[in-house]
Amino acid sequence: MTAPNPARQRVALTTLDRLFADAANVWVIHYSCESFYDRVEGRSPRITSVALRKLDSAQTVSFSIHQVAERRQIPFNQIEQHYDDLEKEMLAAFFGHLGSHRGMKYLHWNMRDVNYGFQAIEHRFRVLGEEPAYVVEDDKKYDLSRLLIDIYGVGYIDHPRMEKLLAKNHIAPRDFLNGAEEAKAFEERNFAALHQSTLRKVDVIANIAGRAHDRNLKTNTTWWEMHGGRVRTALIWMAENKTFQVVAGLASIVGLALAVWALA
Question: Cys-Cys link to 31, which of 37, 50, 60, 77 (CB 3.0-4.6 A)?
Fold first, then answer.
């Protein structure tokens, strides 16, 4: 187990606390897509659903291929024939939502690059011939998976981390699909299951974040590792406690005065 770096730990905890203090302006985001493994042709994976959950109220909005198909009265067994149009319409609605909520912050899990992340969603929209009207600024994106590593240390939980955290904290995994299960659901055209899994994951991310914010998330990190040992804990307390600093300062002055008096 690698203990957390104290400086990064404090920054991560402060970041998490500030997100919850501003929860009315924070959305939890997650999305599902085709498997991005074994794609020898290099084509970007198609996105099937996106979910956004308000951190304060838990109100959730979602966008999915199968919902668009239903609105357009396209039979589910014909969705594959209309993939591009359905995905484009779904992503247009998603980017429209982002544009109508400018300045919001987004809490996510590993959505960091063009393989899987905000850039991947933007890329898919461009592949489909459209340009996002609004793109979330990088300083508005907060990766909970990285924050937890900074708070608890790199070995705080086994892989796959999200699933292991669910088990460790007794969070019901109802409707939750792991990566392999989502890939299989896409192959089987089970878009409803993919959508339900995406909805479940924004709830799970918010749940995990809330427990970390409340300082009661269960991990494999021990109290000793979390606090870096009694010596580090004591040193940090002394460095940050103003009363101790005043007393220590007075003690130093008294000690110096006694030393001078003894030499006189």
Answer: 50
